[in-house]
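From the pipeline queue, job 12 of 40. The input is one protein chain; the requested action is below.

Action: predict structure.
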Amino acid sequence: MKSEYQNAIFRVGENNIDISGNEVESVPSVISRNGLTLRSSVISLTFLYSYVAESFADPLNTEKPSATGSVGVVPSYGILDINTSISISNSIKVKLNLNNALDKNYFTKRPAFYPGPGVWASDGRSFTCSVGFTL
């Protein structure tokens, strides 16, 4: 994605600053989701890799984080999720999901207001299991 301001002015205190040509905040240049599924009659195994390129948190394209963390670059990150589905019988299916399998630390946004300045931290590794019954 390519997103930039054109003929734009941003007010900072009492000053108006020309931000024409600056990248629009929270718009990464690349978002990629890639998956591979291996399947048999009983089991299905899926690997999903998600990549998000870096982006800016403000229209001024501030690179260095502020003391509050509300501005600065939001770094790129990549996440691996692994999902499997196992058919125990014609009426019972077990699903296992491992999200953020490599326990990557990352954040997706630098909010200035609600819920307060700082970063929206990621969830760490998580695991879910579900059992489905067909009647």
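Job complete. The mean pLDDT is 93.
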